[in-house]
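Subgroup meeting minutes
Present: P.N., E.W., G.H.
Scribe: E.W.

1. P.N. recapped why we're keeping a running log of single-chain structure predictions: easier to compare across weeks, and new members can see raw inputs and outputs side by side.
2. G.H. added today's entry (485 aa).
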Amino acid sequence: MLLDYYKLTEQPFGVTPDSRFLYLGPKHREALASLLYGTEANRGFLALIAEPGMGKTTLLYHYLSYLRGKARTAFVFRTDCDSRDFIRHVLLDLGEDISAMDLPAMHEALNRILTEEMKAGRRFVLVVDEAQNLEEKVLESIRLLSNFETPVAKLMHIVLAGQPQLADKLASRSLAQLRQRVSMVIPIERFTEEEVNAYIDHRLWIAGNDKRQIFTPGARRLIAEHSEGIPRNINNLCFHSMSLGCALKRETIDRDLVQHSIADLDLEHLRAKPAAAPARPSPAVVSTSTLSLTSAAAAPPAHSRWTPRAAVAAAALVLLGWPLLRVTRGLTLPSSWHSSHASQAAPSVKPAAAGFALPTPATAPAAAANAAPENASPAASASPTPSPALGVVAELAPPSPASVPTTSVKVKPGETLFQISVNEFGRYDPTLVSQIQALNPWLTDPDHIQSGRTILVPSAEVIPSNVSRAAGPSASVPPAKAGKP
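Output recorded in log:
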């Protein structure tokens, strides 16, 4: 239907390596000339290297057709094999019966064929396509085949054709002897935009086009851009665009049709999307009734030894901090009590276990304000001093991790959370520790962090420089020693 609609005699953009459709542009013409010259000059090993879809196989068929009548050839394309199977493929392509042959017998048969061709005055050319798939042992066996020679000439000429991975193999140290025997490395470069236009015209002309412009200049530019100058990509885009134009009764393929073809050939939207990770609850606030259960569930197996310590610390915090908070709701202490006992009350309340913080009652500031004595000064009433216990609870409740700007820090060998806090912020206090643990729920043991792991810390600009340190240890004293005599 497509051929009749566009008045063509055969499919111009097929997928088979038909040498009649080979476009001998500057790059392919140079590669073919190098192959022929290397053969005529008895150079032994030649390597043809190009990206997938650049027409290597089509060029090789054209090269073999040129050698017909001048040399005996063997073409091997099944390269997922061992050394014995490779020799079998060569002899089978030469028409030999190998049903009763072992490996020495196959080598003897190949040697006999080479001798016969030499006496007849003909060359023997072995072409190996997709050679990048050959194992190193097989490549070494091919190198040994090149030892069939006389003092004046090679009995076998070998062409290794493959993708860029073949160049990587030939450059390896283990194949240094083979690389030294490769006398010519022949690349095939991608088409330019002008060569893409000439390629499309050439294939349409071979297929019987009557010089009618089927592709508009805009469509050709888009094909050249999206195909990246690779012939196989050009064939796919042109075929799909012509099929779509035929279905829509469009005699000319314009840019819009090519754009639709590009979208239809795109596989990205068909790829399986990774399943989204379930949202984890914010570790900033945890109910006191589920403290121990949450601690046991959140601790990773690698740090399970720290779970009992977390439970003990959480229980101590509940016993010491929560009753004191309940008392302060209905009791107002004189301001002198705060100044004389602030330094003593803070060490008695330890920071919450990793990943936990006591909930801060929303009515606590209001309750403290309502409980102020009537004879207090206006300044004292306007700015009531929070109780030590209430201050500890307020500092231990970190903000939501989503609302805190963060930076990444890579953990050095032996580094603890104390050292990271001092290095990044110049201090170590419960508020800062709670914020870091809220950003890293897996961080259950501040004293043992895996080396090389990246953790999130709040940005320096969101950390105030004058945060009170009354509730925590000094920035210069690690947590293990803070509060000890």
